[in-house]
């Protein structure tokens, strides 16, 4: 118990630290298998167990490590031109988001992302949403801007990638590389803002170790998965998170209203 207590900052209990580390393994496996889902699930666990001001910065550092694990395991399948344009847009989005951090209502942002995902997955595809440098750049900018406020915006990049019709390995690998860029920029921005990452370093290291093991397990599952099953699961996962974000926004309004 003393060892567990030494991992966590003073305002986090040893039990909370253990639960988040365990959640890191399972959520990383989920993301490695389907390309998304784990980040939002881990954010929910952290939101319930960590101090509110620490949730988004620590989640960003944890997701940076988890996606680095996925990227390292799947780097041969990355489509680099997509990642380049996404990262360039991400620089703009993170810079703007850092300047107005928590100045916008979180409920409106959640609802907007949820609607975007559902329309992009199930609605008609306008010409402006066709895959290309402009689309990749704008997706990186919007995702990096929004991730400064509520953390898990992986479904935005996943929605973009669903329009490219890449195979399952390229989809998940490219998503991992895009998320490395996004969470790396976010972690850098929070460091500039002044978040005390040093106090959380040991716990973040434990979360990252568990996330690597989860990513390894998830990648093995992905390589054995039939392509048609992946596409169905990927689409259903996007739909679930679209409705989840809308519901979360509505519940938050009801609680505060």
Structure description:
The chain has 257 residues and is mostly helical. The protein has one domain (2-256). The chain has eleven helices and no strands. The model has no long low-confidence stretch (mean pLDDT 79).
Number of strands: 0
Per DSSP, the total helix count is: 11
Biggest β-sheet description: none
The Cα radius of gyration reads 17 Å
Structural class: mainly alpha
* SSE series: HHHHHHHHHHH
Q: Considering DSSP H and I runs of 4 or more, what fraction of the residues is helical?
A: over 70%
Mean pLDDT rating? 79
| Regions with little confidence, pLDDT below 50 for 5+ residues | none
Overall 3D form: globular
Beta-strand residue percentage:
under 5%
Number of domains in the coordinates? 1
Q: What is the first-to-last residue Cα distance?
A: 41 Å
């Amino acid at each position: 118990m003393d060892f567990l207590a030494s991992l966590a900052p003073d305002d986090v209990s040893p039990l909370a630290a253990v639960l988040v580390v365990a959640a890191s393994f399972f959520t990383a496996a989920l993301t490695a298998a389907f390309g998304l889902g784990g980040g939002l699930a881990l954010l929910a666990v952290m939101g319930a167990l960590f101090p509110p001001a620490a949730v988004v910065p620590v989640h960003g550092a944890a997701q940076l490590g988890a996606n680095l694990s996925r990227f390292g395991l799947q780097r041969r399948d990355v489509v680099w031109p997509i990642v380049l344009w996404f990262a360039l847009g991400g620089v703009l989005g993170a810079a703007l988001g850092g300047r107005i951090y928590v100045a916008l209502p979180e409920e409106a942002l959640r609802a907007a992302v949820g609607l975007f995902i559902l329309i992009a997955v199930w609605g008609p595809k306008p010409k402006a949403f066709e895959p290309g440098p402009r689309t990749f750049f704008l997706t990186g900018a919007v995702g990096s801007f929004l991730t400064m406020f509520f953390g898990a915006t992986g479904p935005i990049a996943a929605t973009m990638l669903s329009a490219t019709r890449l195979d399952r390995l390229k989809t998940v690998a490219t998503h991992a590389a895009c998320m490395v860029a996004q969470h790396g920029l976010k972690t850098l921005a929070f460091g500039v803002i002044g978040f005390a990452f040093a106090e959380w370093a040991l716990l973040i290291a434990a979360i990252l170790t568990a996330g690597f093991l989860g990513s390894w397990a998830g990648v093995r599952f992905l390589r054995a998965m039939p392509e048609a099953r992946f596409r169905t699961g990927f689409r259903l996962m996007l739909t679930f998170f679209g409705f989840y974000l809308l519901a979360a926004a509505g519940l938050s309004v009801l609680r505060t209203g």
